[in-house]
Design a protein that fits this description.
The protein is an alpha/beta fold. Helices cover about 45% and strands about 10% of the residues. The chain folds into three domains: about 5-65, Orthogonal Bundle (434 Repressor (Amino-terminal Domain)); about 75-245, Rossmann fold, CATH 3.40.50.300; about 250-340, Bovine Mitochondrial F1-atpase, Atp Synthase Beta Chain, Chain D, domain 3 (Bovine Mitochondrial F1-ATPase, ATP Synthase Beta Chain, Chain D, domain3), CATH 1.10.1140. A seven-stranded mixed sheet has the order 7-6-8-9-5-10-11, with helices on both faces. The model has no long low-confidence stretch (mean pLDDT about 90). Its main location: membrane.
Length: about 350
């Protein structure tokens, strides 16, 4: 039962409105979303859930479940993303945030990093005026205005060129994004990684944001309020890469330990906010302080934000991220002050 994952692209094509469809057959939309992103493994899911999804998609279980295929990860050099919710190359990632939570700054930093790696970047412009997109429009290589124009751009690009494609949720609601992805798949084009954003922020209230996704990046209002950017929720954000990619044991182990630490730290922090530090049992103080350090370490200064923050941007590769997080988890970084870890790159 190892290395099984849902065929998310097939679900995306066959069942565009997955939230309503899931409810109609007695499935919890949250469960379906977690299966799509790999937060719940296919091997541990209920048989009736898989059968119901196959029925909705009008396919066999063998078509719905992919066995043994690997998913390539794109390193973003953003610590919290690469650790908790790796980007699936050729897949679809959804950013779940309300306006002002930093999703466009994160997207701008990613576009900068992708262009340095020689990706072609394309933005399908939303209808209407969107002044908040000014920096993004300047950052991408090509701005397209229709789905048909996007299709022509992609098909005219040589196959060896990897593409990053960005679109707003409005194009998801019309179904046009799914039509485009189906066209490209039928043409044998698999080198397009799609980013979906929601400029209005209503996607936060959806059970299955954007429909089936390979990767989900969920922004955290609490981290935003405390200026802990990029403010990605380490527990809600997830990726099918974790199911479909033969990650090094080290990555998976460190990620799981980090989630466990942050989950307990968040519980303790809620207690501290109400009753103060004296409310934490002595046996839990180490957990609390290491959680503080890890949370601080996962902040990161962005190159695109230097003009506003005054801090030089930092890019951190996955190997260094794993090494540093391990040091925090094992106590090797216990002597470091929390403040010294805010908005840094690698551990010094």
């Amino acid at each position: 039962m190892d290395n099984l994952r849902l065929n998310v692209s097939l679900l995306r094509r066959r069942v565009p409105n997955l939230t309503s469809a899931a409810r109609s057959v007695g499935l919890r939309p949250a469960t379906v979303s977690n299966l799509c992103t790999g937060k719940i493994s296919v091997g541990r899911s209920e048989v009736r859930t898989i059968v119901a999804l196959a029925t909705l998609a009008k396919c066999s279980i063998d078509e719905l479940i992919i066995r043994g295929d690997t998913v390539e990860m794109i390193e973003t050099n953003i610590k919290v993303l690469d650790l908790f919710a790796p980007l699936a190359k050729g897949g679809t990632v959804g950013l779940v945030a309300r306006p002002g939570m930093g999703q466009l700054v994160l997207l701008g930093e990613l576009l900068r990093n992708f262009k340095k790696e020689d990706y072609l970047t394309i933005l399908l412009k939303p209808d209407g005026e969107h002044p908040e997109l000014k920096d993004i429009l300047q950052a991408v290589d090509i701005v397209s205005y229709t789905i048909d124009e996007t299709y022509r751009i992609v098909t005219d690009t040589e196959q060896s060129k990897d593409i990053i494609f960005v679109a707003d949720r409005n194009h998801v609601l019309t179904g046009h994004i799914f039509d485009l992805q189906e066209q490209l798949e039928n043409d044998g084009i698999h080198h397009v990684t799609t980013f979906l954003v929601d400029l209005k922020g209503t996607v936060v209230d959806d059970d299955i944001p954007y429909g089936p996704l390979e990767t989900l990046w969920h922004f955290d209002a609490d981290l935003v309020a405390r200026h802990k950017f990029p403010a990605i929720h380490p527990l809600y954000s997830t990726s099918s890469v974790l199911e479909g990619l033969h990650l090094e044991d080290q990555h998976l182990s460190i990620q799981q330990q980090a989630k466990k630490l942050l989950r307990r730290y968040r519980e303790l922090r809620s207690l501290v906010n109400v009753k103060g530090m004296s409310s934490i049992p002595t046996s839990e103080l180490q957990t609390y302080h290491r959680g503080e350090r890890l949370e601080a370490y996962l902040t990161q200064p962005f190159f695109v934000a230097k003009a506003y923050s005054g801090k030089q941007g930092e890019a951190v590769n996955l190997k260094d991220t794993l090494k540093d997080v391990r040091a925090i988890l094992t106590g090797s970084a216990d002597a470091k002050q929390v403040e010294s870890l805010n908005y840094t790159g690698r551990l010094k």
